[in-house]
Design a protein that fits this description.
- The chain is an alpha/beta fold.
- The protein has a single domain, classed as Acetylglutamate kinase-like (Carbamate kinase).
- Helix content is 38%, strand content 20%.
- It is built from 8 helices and 11 strands.
- A 9-stranded mixed β-sheet has the order 4-3-5-2-1-6-10-11-9, sandwiched between helices. The protein has a two-stranded antiparallel ribbon with strand order 7-8.
- Strand 1, helix 1 and strand 2 form a beta-alpha-beta unit.
- The radius of gyration is 16 Å and the shape is globular.
- The protein starts with a strand and ends with a strand.
- The mean pLDDT is 93.
């Protein structure tokens, strides 16, 4: 395998699958199988999941919710998704541990870098929920932070598209894909890889990012074997 320890960011919206809201069990099970295959191959896996399939703080604020409370609701949505993924993993005999950025025992164990790393070393999937625990920060930023903290070799951003494009390929058929791109180019071109804070955090800490389509089963292992199926973001 190309990497020994990874931080995998999963899209909450992708968990909807063919549904308009919530969690598509088929998509959840697909993710679980791919993650177990990665662990079985010897890779230590940490995961951060978004909550956009349930509630997104920014959209809540636009509808009149207090921004801080809206973001806190979004944090709780990530915990729901994390519990669902842990259940799916355990259902196929892959141990998992859920950590929360805010105290929520017994739902999850309070997050600490050392406990998450210890879980991964034991062959468990460390699912880190609740974002950063603070409002005004996205789960992308939370993913970048946790990747750096847990000393991952790479942050893998699993999305619904197969990499970074010049424009949204779901809206613009003329958009072209980048095989590699630098952090500075992402920022200068205003590309929607992650939010600006997350991109800057990865740049400052030399955390490479691979963006790929997680919704195609088998892609995670292809990425871990070094196949060119996504976009590599680097310094």
């Amino acid at each position: 395998m190309k990497f020994k320890r990874i931080l995998l960011k999963l899209s909450g919206e992708s968990l909807m699958g063919s549904l308009g809201y919530g969690i598509d069990r088929a998509r959840l099970d697909s993710y679980a199988r791919q993650i177990k295959e990665a662990v079985d191959s010897g890779v230590e896996v940490g995961i951060v999941i978004g909550g956009g399939n349930i509630f997104r703080g920014l959209s809540g604020a636009s509808k009149g919710f207090d921004r801080v409370k809206g973001d806190q609701m979004g944090m709780l949505a990530t915990v729901i998704n994390s519990l669902a993924l842990s259940s799916a993993l355990e259902g196929i005999n892959q141990p998992a541990a859920v950590f929360t950025a805010i105290g929520m025992f017994p739902i999850g164990e309070p997050y600490s870098k050392w406990k998450a790393i210890d879980a991964m070393r034991q062959g468990k999937v460390a699912i880190i929920s609740g974002g950063t625990g603070n409002p005004y920060f996205t789960t992308d930023t939370g993913s970048a932070l946790r990747a750096i903290e847990t000393e991952a070799e790479v942050m893998l951003k699993g999305t619904r598209v197969d990499g970074v494009y010049t424009a949204d390929p779901e809206k613009d058929s003329s958009a072209t894909k980048f095989d590699t791109i630098t952090y500075d180019e992402v920022i200068e071109k205003g590309l929607k890889v992650m939010d600006l804070t997350a991109t800057a955090l990865c740049k400052e800490n030399a955390m490479p990012i691979y963006v790929f389509n997680m919704d195609v089963e088998g892609n995670l292992m292809k990425m871990l074997r070094g196949e060119n199926i996504g976009t590599y973001v680097h310094k």
